[in-house]
Design goal:
This protein is of the alpha+beta class. Helix content is 33%, strand content 29%. It folds into two domains: 29 residues; 91 residues, no CATH class. It has a four-stranded antiparallel sheet with strand order 1-2-3-4. It is elongated, with a radius of gyration of 22 Å. The relative contact order is 0.13.
Amino acid sequence: MTLKYIITQLVTLAILGGIMGLVAWVKIPRATPPLDEAEVKRRLAEDFPQTPLDQIWLALDGAGAVARSDDLALLLFRMGDSYVSRSMAWSQALQAQAIKGRFWFRFNDFAAPKASLALAPDWTRAAMGETI
């Protein structure tokens, strides 16, 4: 083995180690702060401008919210290390399945096909006709 070969191998190992360390560091998830009503309004106004909100129901764990705007439900929920917003018919949102304390909303979207929110158990009863 020549000195040139050994140096080349060491440089290659150092570069690979650096790349693996970078990949491991990038995969560490960021903490996503819990939502409050003001943050929900800000994010939904950003994604759905010109859409007035009638009522907002925050998830009990702060990881999402459901907002009503006329006959439209606007959902904001955690996906990965950020929040995603989707819309659906209000009547469809009221039919969300409750499984183990979480309400499951289904979308026709391959990027975010469903959302799970820890809403109050009686939120659908409170949502029937309730407006600000």
